[in-house]
Amino acid sequence: FCGEGAAAAVLCLSYGHSDDRFWLALTVFFMLFPSVLVQLTLMFVHRDLSRDRPLVLLMHLLQLGPII
């Protein structure tokens, strides 16, 4: 998960330097949209399986839910 995020960030930097806005926008969209959907799904799973814990919710807000 972290490696995929790092690779997408490097790719976004590369597209930013080459001024290729179309591919930059697609890369950002395909990097953020699935991540947000995974975080929302994991928030519901954690909420159903255990009590609300502030650290777990913070990790989901920071997009680090799969690491938990």
Automatic annotation (TrEMBL):
Where in the cell does this protein reside? Answer: Membrane
In what way does this protein cross or attach to the membrane? Multi-pass membrane protein
- Do you know which InterPro entries this protein is assigned to? XK-rel, XK-related_adapter
Entry's transmembrane regions: 22-45
Domain of life of the organism in this record? Eukaryota
Query: What are its GO cellular component terms?
Result: plasma membrane
Q: What is its main location?
A: membrane
List UniProt keywords, sorted A-Z. Membrane, Transmembrane, Transmembrane helix
Can you tell me which family this protein belongs to?
Answer: Belongs to the XK family.
Protein name per UniProt: XK-related protein
Q: In which organism is this protein found? A: Donacobius atricapilla
